[in-house]
Amino acid sequence: MQKIQDLIEEIKNLEKRLSLEIQKKEEEFFYEIHGKKVTFEEKVREYHKTLATRIYTYILNAAWLNIITVPVIWFGVVAAVFLDLVVTIYQFICFPVYRIPKVQRNDYIVMDRHALKYLNAIEKLNCVYCGYFNGLIAYVQEIAARTEQYWCPIKHARKISSIHSRYRKFLEYGDGDEYRNRIEKIRKDFDDLK
Length: 194
What we know:
The chain has about 190 residues and is mainly alpha-helical. The protein has 2 domains: about 1-50, no CATH class; about 70-194, no CATH class. It has helices at about 1-25, 25-30, 40-50, 55-60, 65-100, 120-150, 175-185, and strands spanning about 30-35, 35-40. It has a two-stranded antiparallel sheet. β1 (about 30-35) and β2 form a beta hairpin. The longest helix has about 35 residues, at about 65-100. The radius of gyration is 22 Å and the shape is elongated.
C-alpha cells in the first residue's frame, strides 16, 4: 500500500514540475498572465495577426469530410450544456449535505485560446468548443471522484486506464475489514482540498 502511495505522490510532484515548465513558456513566447487575462507584447500581437489564415482560404482548404461532420460535432454542445447544468445543480444541492467541498468550475473550464491573434474566427470557435468540452469533462470527473470517495471508496480489482484525483484515498479491493473500519474516516477525508 505504501509503495502505491509513494508512486502517486511522485506522479503529483511530476505534474507540478510539468506545470512549472509549461509556465516557463510565458517568457519564450513573450506573454504574461494577469489573473485570467493573457497579454502578449504589442509586436508579438501584430506578428500573430499576419499568421492568421483568412476564413475563405481556411474553408477552401478544409477536407470536405471535416466540413460535413461539423453539425455532428456541434450537436454535442446541447448534451454538454445539459450535463454542465445537471452536475452543477447536483453538487450545489448534495455536496453540502455530505460535507464534500465543492468543485470550482473555473478551475476546470478554461477558455482562453480564442484570444490568440493567429487564429481565424473558425479556429477560435473550435478552441472555445474544445476548451469548454474538455474542461467540462474534467469538472464532471472531479465531481464524480469526490462523490465516489464518499459513497464507494474502493479501488477496482481490474486495471483502469487512468485514475482520478481521489483514487489514492480509496481502500483495497477485497479488504472488507478495512472498509468497515475506515469508511467513515475516508468519507470525511477532504482536508487536502481546503
